[in-house]
Design goal:
By secondary structure, the protein is α/β, with parallel strands linked by helices. It has one domain: 3-Layer(aba) Sandwich (Rossmann fold). Helices cover 39% and strands 24% of the residues. The chain has 9 helices and 10 strands. A hairpin with a 2-residue loop joins β4 and β5. The longest helix has 18 residues. Adenosine-5'-triphosphate binds next to β2 and α1. The site of adenosine-5'-triphosphate has 13 residues, from β2 and α1.
Length: 254
């Protein structure tokens, strides 16, 4: 579903900085992949390049068979809207809209009938446990409910790839667990393909596979083969060798 081929990214400036160096990554359809690495290692840069928000200096990003960065500006905008779903740390909901209006927003830009919009929103809201708050405004709901709303919005148009940037960064541990369980459920039951950047090893332990980036390069990767608790411990062990402590990894979230 996603192929990152030899991607490098150099930020030009007074002093140019190589944030990614010849990075390769393949994500299969239906995989839930975590991206971890110390602060400044290039995670956000990778996410921005994959989400087509930023262009790589060299290399290719192929999503669902399409070479994303070679599309024209107009086609790229459409591609992003139709094929990608985004979940952010700070939810990015539109404050003036209700929960339901936020969720159906991506569909209103397409030619989807009201009946179909309602069917989709009801099905997803049921699945995510937010059916009872559909008519509330976003300032009337909790952080966990806001993130579930954002997830519903990210999947309502059945994107090929869901990109999540620290989706639990602003949540307390109970709400974070709920959101991660929902992401895992969407992955397992709906076959959603997901890439999630996180500093949190507990969050990463919900993934099928975690890749570790250091200095813009692939450092190592782990596949979950055992219980979640064992995977968590394996992730912690890599974090120790990569040179950062859990504190250092969590610092940005505070
Ligand atoms: N627009 C930019 N111009 C110049 N340098 C940049 C720019 N954006 C990021 N960088 C640099 O590129 C490197 C990678 O940054 P990036 O934000 O991808 O790291 P990260 O792993 O996401 O870090 P964090 O976990 O702290 O968010 C850092 O050294 C950063 O200072």
């Amino acid at each position: 579903m996603l192929e990152v081929r030899n991607v490098s990214k150099v930020y030009e400036g007074k002093v140019s900085y190589q944030a990614l160096s010849n990075l390769n990554l393949t994500i299969q359809q239906g995989e839930f992949v975590g991206v971890m690495g110390p602060s400044g290692s290039g995670k956000t840069t990778l996410l921005n390049v994959v989400s087509t928000i930023d262009k790589p200096t060299s290399g290719e990003v192929v999503i669902a068979g399409k070479n994303a960065h070679q599309l024209s500006k107009r086609k790229l905008a459409l591609f992003r809207r139709r094929e990608l779903g985004f979940v952010f740390q700070d939810f990015n909901l539109l404050q003036t809209l209700t929960v339901k209006e936020n969720i159906i927003f991506p569909l209103t830009l397409e030619n989807v009938s009201i009946k179909e919009q309602d069917e989709r929103v009801n099905r997803i809201a049921d699945k995510l446990g937010i059916a009872h708050i559909l008519n509330k405004r976003t300032y009337e709901i909790s952080g966990g409910q806001s993130q579930r709303t954002a997830i519903a919005r990210a999947i309502i148009h059945s994107p090929k790839l869901i990109l999540a940037d620290e989706p639990t960064g602003n949540l307390d541990s109970k709400a974070a667990r709920d959101v991660l369980e929902i992401l895992q459920k969407l992955n397992k039951e709906e076959g959603a393909t997901m890439m999630m950047v996180t500093h949190d090893s507990q969050a990463a332990s919900y993934c099928d596979r975690v890749i570790f980036i250091k200095d813009g390069m692939l450092f190592s990767e782990l596949r979950r083969t055992d219980k979640q608790q064992v995977f968590f411990q394996e992730i912690m062990n890599v974090l120790m060798t990569i040179g950062g402590t859990e504190d250092e990894f969590s610092a940005v979230r505070v």
